[in-house]
Amino acid sequence: MADIQGSYDDLFIAVPNALSTMLDEGDAGASVAVFVDGEPVVDVWGGFADAGRTVPWQRDTITNVWSVTKTMTSLCALVLVDRGELDLDAPVGRYWPEFAGAGKEKVLVRHVLAHTAGLPDWDGTVGDLYDWPSVTARLEAQTPQWEPGTAAGYHSLTHGFLVGELVRRITGRTVGEFFAREVAGPLGADFHIGLSAEDDHRVALTIPPPGRDEDYTASAPGGTDPVTTTASVRVRDGNGVAWRRAEIPAASGFGNARSVALVQSVMACDGAVRGTRLLSPAGCGLARREQFSGEDRRLGMPVRWGLGYGLFDTGLGWGGWGGSLVVVDPGHRMAVAYVTHAMREPSNDQRGMELLAAAYDALQAPPP
Questions:
Q1: 102 backbone φψ class: left, alpha, beta (φ>0; ψ -120 to 50)
Q2: 67 has catalytic annotation
Q3: Residues of the chain with pLDDT under 50
């Protein structure tokens, strides 16, 4: 079996064993973490950080987690809601006046968080994503594709900019700066929205699925609505320096499983981890308030959206392009994170769910 580094509670041995099996089956490298009560019961990694399999995955290796970043950006907004600085029922235009044109005066803050704002499509190029003023100007000019709040359509790229601009308007800081100072810094979490050059040497570049090259793009949405998005983000875009430096708050977060699980343990532990409180218990519970249940117009499948998180049975979380995943279970005070740079085709990728199942099996096992 593939060699696995790190530490784990013996009760959770199925989790590192599952990771080892995935590496044996061809994955390059990955990390997995399970936190219970804000502390790691699994913190393991293995494999290689490069496609050539010459550089071992290290404890501090980080990679792009793609849409798992949305959970980090949404947490920033929930912190502001909990502080009374952001009102979920207020129109976005209260904080961002220029946004209210083109029929968007009825778009509420909660709509933006829950993918129901009617602005799911990015109408610029990939290069435009690196210019924040250009992005916000485009969003200001867009018209909602449906009455806000009446339907959901996954805001794949626009979600982060919409939430991020609210954070910037209220705090005067970019979402990456706010996250670093108010979330990652206090928790000691190695997660970044906007990566500095000094961290480049730790990055495991994304590897496209077998048989694909770096021109591989995200799968087309499965919904029936017409899509006006013109930007097809390729693996090579995500592997570029410009992508790492930019703050693309829906998709360009860099971290490892330990950092993802640590941050999202806030949602599992009533808002406080290791003596650091980011949210009140009531504020923490906001994320689990269902905003929409039904078929998502972009994903083409049934989805339950909370405030910034997908809802799954008793849990919440979200996954990223290529396989990375975080799921939080407040009932068990548990956060499970899987971070990989080795993509598989979405239709053939159950890795995150297999690791999640292994963690639940440990919870249900009788004590030794």
A1: left
A2: yes
A3: 220, 223-224, 226-228, 230
- Given 7, 20, 67, 156, the catalytic residue: 67
Buried b / exposed e along 219-245 (16+ C-beta atoms within 10 A):
eebebeeeeebebebbbbbbbbeebbe
Which residues are 44's β-sheet partners?
Answer: 6, 32
User: How many Å apart are CA 176 and CA 167, to the nearest integer?
Assistant: 10
* Per-residue model confidence as pLDDT tens digits over 196-237: 999 999 999 999 999 999 999 976 455 445 444 546 899 999
Amino acid, res. 47: G
Residues 6 or more apart whose Cβ sits within 8 Å of residue 174: 132, 164, 167, 168, 194, 247
364's tokens:
């249900």
102's tokens = 């083109």
Domain with 314, as residue range(s), is 4-364
Quote the tokens at residue 323: 């396989």
Give per-residue pLDDT as tens, 24-82: 999 999 999 999 999 999 999 999 999 999 999 999 999 999 999 999 999 999 999 99
Domain count for the chain: 1
Please classify residue 324 by burial: count the beta carbons closer than 10 Å to its beta carbon, then call 0-12 exposed, 13-18 middle and 19+ buried.
Answer: buried
CATH of the domain at 247: 3.40.710.10
CB neighbour list of residue 125: distance below 8 Å, 6 or more residues apart: 230, 231
Note the pTM of the prediction, 2 decimals.
0.96
Residue 131, number of CB atoms within 10 A of its CB = 13
